[in-house]
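Show me any protein, fold above all:
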Amino acid sequence: MPRGAVDGFARMPPPRHRGGETDDLIQYPAARLAAMIRDGSVSAREVVEAHLSRIEQVNGGLNAIVTLRSDEALEEADRVGQAVRGGAALPLAGVPFTVKDVIAAAGVRTTAGTPFLKDFVPRMDATAVARLRGAGAILLGKTNCPEWAMFGYTRNSLFGETRNPVGPVTPGGSSGGEAAAIASRCSPLGLGTDFGGSVRWPAHCTGVLALRPTAGRVPGTGQLPAPSLDEPLIPNEITVQGRVQVVGPLARSVDDLELSLRAMAGPDGLDPLAVPAPLRPSDEATVARVAVWEGPGSPGVRADVAAVVREAARAIEKRGIAVADERPDMLERAVRLYSELRDTDRLQDVRRLVRGREGEVGDDVRSAIADAEEADRREPNPDRALLWEERDRLRAGFLSFLERHPILLMAVATVPPYDLSGAPPSVNGREHSMWDVLAPCRLISLLGVPAASVPFGKSAEGLPIGVQVVGRAFREDEVLAVSRMLMEESALGRTRWSEVTE
């Protein structure tokens, strides 16, 4: 195995020991931790202390968590413990969680990775954060992201670069800090945002799970960028980002994805795009047919990634589920259409927020703003109504496809995680930009349907490869049910990377 594939993680210290036994609390999934706290076999304070200890142990090398709430989290743990002893029914009782630094948390620095917001402290929780806390979860802190979550890597001029606990490759982005925190056992549960793959790509890179819910399932209230910093931070419903970006969970078990989704789902009366829709239990879902598609022919998918997708399809077929090789041809056009629609935004929210203070953003954002301004001068914005009309036709075709095959298995990204400081990855002799790498995620984002990233195989270099499980709108139950099957069938799904590499 090439150096750095898994031995890169070997430099991370193993979990500390108490009384001669490994501290297992950081290894347990969120659902089990909550159950243990409710039955009194462990206290919420002990669980939080174990995760704070792990953060102290490894975060200096990872740079995943950029704002930590040690004292506040312990105080909240004591309050949750008291509520549980008083009979409170809290589905996430005492579960620590972390949040990407573009999602607001009341009284906690929320910077979006930009010097422009280095002192911004929201007064209000994002709806998703408030609902997790209301279910008994305890916020540990905020995780790193690229500036304004605009890029597929995780570094910024405010906090620096986040490293991947599985080796010297990118942890992905823009929720890369969150994925690294989950993978390294600093947190059992996290929240990220996903516009063009920003929870699925980092999950693929770090060997964890992520769920992009159906657009409208979880309110987006409390995200940055927003049209202004006036609270509550409401998504901009006229931009592509405001309509397409969602808040989604990252975790190490399918049960945890479902538990957190159930806590967050439903309109909040603030986000105009959030809708009421039933959320069925995944253990009651019946999926009779799936389709398999490696991914878009342009830009193409690397052979070992395609092989993992095919292996996942065979695993599902062994479960007695019919597998079809029918190509969703409408998705080929969706790759380019996503880019054409996104370009119509021209960073209007970011530009509005920083106007007159452009010197307070990083070089990459300043360059992107300059490109958007040049586009304004060069040509008028295309008619977005025509582009949305085409999107709706493609979506109708894809929804019809999903009526025949309720689940589509496909690649998360065109390549495995790679070293951003090295040569660009290539497929069939063609170099792939980050935009190319995220093509399989971007096209699903555009169509607004739910999708999970499930760790299932390894690359030729021994690095994790995820499979994207795509489902029908508002049928996260089916997506989660198939994701659970894949986790049960995959050696990688049963592997804890830290056990392999320490």
User: Anything to note?
Assistant: The radius of gyration is 21 Å. Residues 1-278 form a domain with the Amidase signature (AS) enzymes fold (CATH 3.90.1300.10). Residues 1-11, 17-22, 497-502 have pLDDT under 50 and may be disordered. DSSP finds 18 helices and 17 strands in the chain.
